Amino acid sequence: MTIPALFSILLIVLVLPFLLKKVEEELELFLFIMGILAISVTSQWSISLVEDALVEPIKITAAVLIAVLLFRELKGFIENNVNRFVKISGLRLFSFMMVFFLGLISSIITAIIAALVLVEIISHLKLDKKHETRLVILSCFSIGLGAALTPIGEPLSTIAIAKLKGKPYFAGFWFLAANLWLYILPSLFVLGTFSAYISGTHISKAPGLKEQKKETFKDILMRTGKIYLFVMALVFLGTGFKPLIDNYISIISPELLYWINILSAVLDNATLAAAEIAPSMTLYQIKSALLALLLAGGMLIPGNIPNIIAANKLGIKSKDWAKFGIPVGLGLMVLFFIVLVAVN
Questions:
Q1: CA angle, 44 as apex, 42 and 46 as ends, to 5°?
Q2: What is the mean pLDDT of residues 65-79?
Q3: What is the C-alpha separation between 180 and 295, in angstroms, rounded?
Q4: What is the spatial distance between Cα 39 and Cα 165, in angstroms, rounded to a whole number?
Q5: How many C-beta neighbours within 10 Å does residue 140 have?
C-alpha cells in the first residue's frame, strides 16, 4: 500500500497547486503538510530527519535575510545610477552585463535578491514595455541557472545538496558548481548576448515596467519565514518519496528524465527536485534532471522563484511571459540536450 499512497501524494503535490489558487498562494504550508504525510505513510520518522529538516533551511534563509537587508541600503544607489551606467556603457552592453552578472552572482546573493535587484533596475530603465519584459525573462532564466551553482542560491540547489550529502556523492558546498558549471556558465553568456541583441540601442520615451508595490520590513520577514518552511517541506517530501524514487524514477533513462522535466514550466522546480533527486541515481541522471528543471522553470511564471517575484512586482501577465519564455526555453532545452548527450 505504501507505493500507491506515495503515487497519490505525488499526484496531489503536482496537480493541486496548479488547479487551486489558494493552494498556490499557500504553497509552503501545503507542501509542509504533504511532506509530513509522505513521511508518515512510509514510517520514516526519526530524530535525524527532524534535525535535518530544522537545520537544512538555515543557510539559505540566513543568506536571504542578510542579503535583502543589504539590498535595502543599495536601492537608492541603483535608482540614482541605472541610466547613468546605460549612458556610459551603451544599452546593448548594459543589457548583456545585467543578464550575465545577475546570473553569475545569484549563487551568492541568492536568486531572490537577484530578482529584487532586477526589479529595481527595470523600474528605472527607460525602455518600452515589450523590451523590458523580454529583458526580465532572459534575466530570470539567467538567475535561475546561476543560482543553482551553490546550495544558498535557491531552494532547488539547497534540496539537491541535502539529498546527495551522503554516499556515494558526499555532496558539499561546491558539488553542483563542479558538475554543472560547464553547462551553466556558457548559457549565461548566451543569454546575455541574446539580451544585448534584442534590447536595441535607443532609450524609449514609451512607458515601461514599474514596481507595483514597495516592500515593507514585515514583507521581508514573512518571505524569509516562508523560505524556511518551504525548504523544510522539501526535506520531508524528498525523504518521503525515497521509496518511489529508488523503485521507479532512478531506473528512467537520463534522456527521458530530461524531457519529462519540462513539467517544471508549470510546476515549481524545487518541488520536482525534491520528488526526483536521490543518491541512487547516476551522475548523468542527476545532471539531466537538474538542468531540465532549471531550463523549463524559466518558461512560465510558476516555474521558478525569480519569475514569480519579477512578474508579481512588475505586473507581467502570464501570456506575455509565455510568448517569449516558451520559445527561449525550448531552444535552450534542445541545445542543452545535444550537449548533454555529446558530453556524457
A1: 165
A2: 80
A3: 13
A4: 19
A5: 33
Which among 249, 259, 251, 260 is positioned nearest to 341, based on CA atoms?
259
Residue type, 316: I
Ordered DSSP codes for 195-206:
HHHHH-SS---S
Of 341 and 208, the structure prediction assigns the larger pLDDT to: 341
Number of domains the chain is built from: 1
pTM: 0.89
How far, in Å, are 148, 202, 231, 308, 309 from residue 238 at the CA level?
A: 18, 48, 10, 23, 25
Specify if 38 maps to a domain.
no
Q: Is residue 257 part of a domain?
A: yes
pLDDT of 210 > 80? The answer is no
The mean per-residue pLDDT over the stretch 233-254 comes to 88
Q: Is the peptide bond before 207 cis (omega within 30 degrees of 0)?
A: no
Tell me the three state secondary structure of residue 216.
Answer: coil
Length of the chain counted residue by residue: 344
281 is in which domain, residue-wise? 51-343
User: Is 217 domain-assigned?
Assistant: yes
Asked if residue 231 is part of any domain, the answer here is yes
Cα 87 from Cα 85, distance rounded (Å): 5
For residues 207 and 344, which has the higher predicted lDDT (pLDDT)? 344
Question: Are 242 and 52 a contacting pair, CB within 8 Å?
Answer: no
Please state the φ and ψ torsions of residue 30, each to the nearest 5 degrees.
-60, -50
